[in-house]
Amino acid sequence: MQNSLTLVSSFLGLQARDQADGPAAVALQEARRRVRAVSTVHSRLYRGDNTTTIDLSRYIGELVTDLGGSMGPDWAAAIQTDLAPVCVDAGRAVTLGLILTELIINAQKYAYDGQPGPLFITLAEADDQLRLTVADDGKGGHQAGKGFGSMMIRSLVGQLDGQLAYRDRKPGLEVTLKARIDPLA
Q1: Which is it for strands 53-55 and 163-168: parallel, antiparallel or unpaired?
Q2: Nearest partner of 136 among 157, 108, 161, 156, judged by Cα
Q3: What's the rounded Cα separation, in Å, for the pair 93 and 52?
Q4: Least enclosed by CB within 10 Å: which of 38, 94, 150, 185?
Q5: Residue 34: CB atoms within 10 Å
Q6: What pLDDT, in 10s, does the model give residues 81-136?
Q7: d(CA 175, CA 185)
Q8: Closest CA to 138 of 114, 121, 122
Q9: Mind listing the pLDDT tens digit for each residue in 58-89?
Q10: DSSP 3-state helix, strand, coil percentages of the chain (rounded to 5)?
Q11: What's the CA gap between 132 and 125, in Å, rounded?
């Protein structure tokens, strides 16, 4: 899986270079960034010893550190986390990691126009449900749209049988995912 993702990322990078600075190059770079994010989610999950039950707080903490590092030191310093220990099965952890990655990319892209700004990521558990929140202090208004990332988030939230809520923080936006911890409970 990891080799395939690396290969796709390389091909996207080559295609982007051939397109110069047009809209196709921008789209290809965005696609490459998303493939790299999926690769990070996948590789981070399978570094652990136990791959059936995942400590989501540890997994998200490591994933956020990796993503922050890939976005640069200013972004890494701007991300704050408050992660309660929550255990989920590996399949749900991958899905949650992909949703989190997309929410971080959206905040980076829309709240701050790519410039570093504060991101707050929290994970909590209550009544057999987890709550994963990504909040920013940016310009707000970047709620679910019709683009690829929004469609992917909706699909992934559906796989979890979860709910996504958007709240205007004035300034900024808070996005909260609620989903059952154990899908059979």
Answers
A1: unpaired
A2: 108
A3: 10
A4: 185
A5: 19
A6: 999 999 998 888 888 988 998 898 888 888 888 889 999 999 999 988 999 999 99
A7: 25
A8: 114
A9: 989 988 888 887 778 898 899 999 999 999 98
A10: 50, 20, 25
A11: 9
Name residue 56's amino acid: L
Confidence (pTM): 0.75
- 60 dihedral zone (left: phi>0; alpha: psi -120 to 50; beta): alpha
Alpha helices in the chain (DSSP H): 2-18, 23-45, 56-71, 73-78, 90-106, 148-159
Q: Calculate the CA 81 to chain-centre distance.
A: 14
Identify the CA nearest to 111 among candidates 65, 177, 166, 156. Answer: 166
Q: How many residues does the chain have?
A: 185
Among candidate residues 106, 119, 108, the one with its CA nearest the CA of residue 77: 119
Number of neighbouring beta carbons within 10 Å of residue 99:
26
3-class SS at 69? Answer: helix
Ranges of H-type helices in 123-179 = 148-159
Of 37, 34, 22, nearest to 147 by C-alpha is 34
Report which DSSP code applies to 142: -
How far is the first Cα of the chain from the last one, in angstroms, to the nearest whole number? Answer: 31
| Residue found under tokens 């960034």 | 33
Using DSSP bridges, classify how beta strands 79-83 and 119-126 pair: parallel, antiparallel or unpaired.
parallel
